[in-house]
Amino acid sequence: MAEKENKSFDELSPEMQELVRAELLRQEKRRKTLIFILILVMILGFGGYGLYYFTAGRTQDGYDTIAKLKGSQALANLKEGEGTVTATLDNGEEITLEILDEYKTLYNKSKKKLIGWLKIDDTIIDYPVMQGSDNEFFLSHNLEGNEDRAGALFMDCACDVVHGSDNYIIYGHHLTSGRMFSSLEEYESEKYYEKHPYILFDTIYEKGRYQVMYAFRSRVYDSDQIVFKYYQFINAENEEEFDYNIGQMAAIAFYDTGVKASWGDQLLTLSTCDYQETNGRFVVVAKKID
Hints:
The protein has five helices and ten strands; from the N terminus they run H-H-E-E-H-E-E-E-E-H-E-E-H-E-E. It is α+β, with helices and mostly antiparallel strands.
């Protein structure tokens, strides 16, 4: 068969043979180019994957270093007044708030953007919490204000730890590395909740212990959609509005923890991305008990 094909080729005119050779060369070139592209894509893919985990590891190392500064008594370089914050109350009265000693060093290191510290025992969640003038900056910046893909945990800019808010909302990324707020989704399991019923959240001014009330999925809705939007519940005008928000969360919770909240209680909401739907969110809500 091969001899017949060769003979057939030999019988072609010189011009036609040249055309055939040129076409074969083009096909071989395309094949080599395709192989090169596939290899390059694989290299870039694995490289990007490796870079992501390298960056995630470096970010975690940074937070491990920051955690060592928590409680640091290396405050000798603080200038007078750097451990306090002056605030004006609604009645016009000026008060001076003392930052807890364990957060003074970090407060100044963070360019005064540190607002607290969040920890859930026996989980990877053990991070400083920032607060900026908007809800965008700390999506891509760390405690020191440097660009960082992992961002930082941050409190909604509308919350106020000085004057108080009914509900402190804290956001964090859901990373494939498992860092930041990735483990929040474990609260879909009631057994996980039973092992992790408490959340420790200190503001820079006072310590706090919270008990988990609800875990649920939600999403970010269009502004004109009339629906319960958990991320808009920061302050309630009255007891009726507070109870309405509590009822809405209870209605979509995965399970009943038996923990109840009433008007005047301090709430804490943790929110991260959920990839089961577009703009999905996974949410855990807790009530201050200490």
